[in-house]
Amino acid sequence: xxxxxxxxxLEALVQLxxxxxxxxxxxxxxxxxxxCSNLFEDLTKLLSKLLIxxxxxxxxxxxxxxxxxxxxxxxxxxxxxxxxxQWLRENPRLDKKMIGEYIxxxxxxxxxxxxxxxxxxxxxxxxxYH
Length: 130
Hints:
Its main location: Golgi. By secondary structure, this protein is mainly alpha-helical.
């Protein structure tokens, strides 16, 4: 299968994954059937591999990792700084030094602001629920 077709298929999957009821419907209609493969698990593994690849690229060259995730449709294009801040904060595999270097770049001041706001909000919510 040509690379372009794989790329188009992947983009379609990412768009489907964003539909709120898609995962539930997929599980109920396919994964519960004895004669069907476990599509939810297969798709989740594929998306996990993409996230791991994006994380590894970010840990080498942050800009390259962000671009990879945008190309795969896992981060919006143009960048949504709130979305990126959430990914940076919640991804335990990211190198903290690389996060610091990336968000402290003068070109990423809006992202730095979003990251700090997201960080403050997550700390506040943590104390409210614990």
